[in-house]
Amino acid sequence: MNAIVDFLNTVLWNYVLVYGLLGTGLFFTLRLGFIQFRHFPEYFRVITGSRATSANGITPMQALTVSLASRVGTGNLAGVAVAIYLGGPGAIFWMWIVALLGMATAYAESTLAQLYKVRNGEGQYRGGPAFYMANGVGSRTMGYVFSVCLILSFGLIFSAVQSNSISESMAGAFGIPGWMTGLGVAAVAGIVIFGGIRSIAKVAERIVPAMAGIYLLVALYVIIIDIDEVPAMLALIVKSAFGFEAAAGGFTGGILAALLNGVKRGLFSNEAGMGSAPNIAATAVPDPHHPSSQGLVQGLGVFIDTIVICTATALMILLSGAVDYGPDGAQGMVLTQNALSEHIGTAGPIFIAIAILFFAFTSIIGNYSYAESAMEFLGLGKTVPLLVLKAAVMGMVFWGAVQPVSAVFNLADASMAVMATINITAILILSKTVARLTRDYFDQKAQGRVPLFRFKDHPDLNRGIDPTIWNRDVEAERR
């Protein structure tokens, strides 16, 4: 079984996804007229100007913070360090490219998730890739395979991975035994996830901005005290990406190592094209009431995750001089902790441990929300199946805190790779619909109107869309 999983990972990660994700991002960037560059201010406007509240779904800001809760995790701390150790500073450049192109991909997938969303038995909005695969592409089989992979990887295995990171950091900084950490995290996560998606959204809305803000303030302090070296480090990142300058410390991996590790770790971090964030994007009430506005919200999430937070981590590591590319050099979380120790002393590892606690905890609850949407698609959104899933998530959180997770991490990699492959296939098939929605949104903006999408104005989009959602007179309801 391990041999099969390793082979699948080699093929999908080293060939299909590295080039498939970059190609998909480039395709949507071109097809949508460089939307992430030409309309960059709109990515912020749909959040700052949002007024949407509804009993049917969560707000755009809540959708952004839940998706960031999943995106901003160990990948932003340990993942960046792994990318630098294995791919050199140049790997960060390719993480940037993945993010900039991924903003268009994330826009496309979340726009489709909004368009094809449905109401569940309680009247709550649900949707995601499985729904647009079934209702847009016309393949329920794609949706079933995607949903199973999502539940396996995000719902279960990644919960153990995040818990393991919390456990290791708590043991290293405070000497807390893994079983105690596991019980504590499982208990608190259980309280949140048993409250459902609305509970997750409320917690994420409070924790995510605070944790990201504090982390960025520490990074800003590090950058300010070493400001003279920052331009040289940024130049090193770009030059190393193309092999123009070898990294200090003897890194010899070359351009391919930088490309592969930057793309892989970039996807791990921002999840653009993977099909995860659209599950929460579909539960939001968009403002303006148009599918594209929620696509813009999730595109902003990619920018914040990688361009802002991952870059902050990378600069802290590179400015510290703590990177040792030898076989015995520190990597992962240890490298990040060592780097911050160089900047702020013994408080460094403690700060990273606390950051990991919040980053990884919010990833656990954010990932669960994705799994719940997949359960809805599989027809398992009833009380008993969801109780089983919640109990399983809590069990995996405890297990991950006390056991090494390397044995199942390869399986999670494979499951995530299958998810991403199916998802990018679906959004490419539906790219014409994405382009049409984009034109409709920005044509209305150009006419000075608030962009609204009404199903009755687009009669040829007549398959798989709930007209009761998209024929609402939003302005009349507000009045």
What does this structure look like?
With 479 residues, the chain is an all-alpha fold. It has one domain: Amino acid/polyamine transporter I, CATH 1.20.1740. 75% of the residues lie in helices and 1% in strands. It is built from 21 helices and 2 strands. It has helices spanning 2-31, 35-38, 40-48, 60-71, 74-87, 90-115, 129-137, 140-174, 178-193, 196-225, 230-241, 254-270, 278-281, 291-320, 332-344, 347-377, 383-402, 406-429, 431-446, 467-470, 474-478, and strands at residues 118-119, 125-126. It has a two-stranded antiparallel ribbon. A hairpin with a 5-residue loop joins β1 and β2. α5 crosses α15 and α6 (90-115) packs antiparallel against α14. The mean pLDDT is 84. This is Alanine or glycine:cation symporter, AGCS family. Keywords: Cell inner membrane, Cell membrane, Membrane, Symport, Transmembrane, Transmembrane helix, Transport. InterPro entries: Na/Ala_symport.
In short:
By secondary structure, the protein is an all-alpha fold. The protein has a single domain, classed as Up-down Bundle (Amino acid/polyamine transporter I). It contains 21 helices and two strands.
Strand residue content: under 5%
Give the number of helices. 21
Helix percent band: over 70%
The Rg value, from CA coordinates, equals 21 Å
Q: What is the number of E strands?
A: 2
**Which class of secondary structure composition applies to the elements?**
mainly alpha
Distance between the termini: 60 Å
CATH architecture: Up-down Bundle
Largest sheet: 2 strands, antiparallel
Low-confidence stretches: none
Order of helices and strands: HHHHHHEEHHHHHHHHHHHHHHH
The CATH topology is what?
Answer: Amino acid/polyamine transporter I
Total of domains: 1
Sheet with the most strands: spatial strand order: 1-2
